[in-house]
Amino acid sequence: MEYAFHIYNKLAADGMLMATEKLLQQRAVNNPTSPFSKRNDATPVIVCVGSDLAIGDSLGPIAGSMLKYKTQGNSAFIYGTLSSPVTAKEIKYLRAFLKDAHPKSPVIAVDAAVGSEGDIGLIKVLDAPLYPGAGANKRLGAIGDISILGIVAEKSVANYGLFNRTRLNLVYSMAEIVSETLASLLWQRKGAQTGKTSG
Predict the structure, then answer these.
(1) Residues 6+ apart with CB under 8 A from 156
(2) Given pLDDT bands bounded at 50, 70 and 90, which one contains residue 35?
(3) Residue 25 pLDDT > 50, yes or no?
(4) Which residues, 6 or more positions from 150, have their beta carbon under 8 angstroms from its beta carbon?
């Protein structure tokens, strides 16, 4: 299942929040024998993939940095920021780390992506893992249970060049919406857990 929201839609963050919550709940219902179903209100781990060396590839680190700021005091687990980026090459190691460190938490992966010209500016929420480097025909393995992709450039044989010519305003606007969405999700989950503990 896939949901798409344009950055100029004023309700994009609200729509993305509802879509992400729905996908988390559906995963719990559709997998009754997995631990996922027992952690429907567990706080998700956020993995923001990308590099600050190319503007178009910096969606993940920028969103991760914004999200860290917006969730201060939440004790959320966010991997991939401008000061400590998670690049596609590190996915294999991060996947093993997450399995050991957060075995009961759903993982939401964020990354920039390429698509058709008409898709530039869309943020997609997918009920599928993230495949970093797929736009450049790299096979680096999957990460995450749910993925959020920001379409920043048109797919072409010269994707890296396009990533360098992507407008920072587009990436920054996407990062604002993604971080707002995920901050709301993390605070809601924290509130639900606090309510269960005190109730």
Answers:
(1) 114, 162
(2) very low
(3) yes
(4) 59, 110, 111, 112, 113, 122, 123, 124, 171, 174, 175, 178
What is the average pLDDT across 27-55? 73
62-78 confidence digits (pLDDT tens): 999 999 999 998 888 99
Neighbours of 188 (CB within 10 A): 14
Predicted confidence at residue 195, as pLDDT, reads 64
Look at the block and give the residue holding tokens 């998700």: 44
Give which of 107, 93, 79, 92 is closest to 140, Cα–Cα.
92
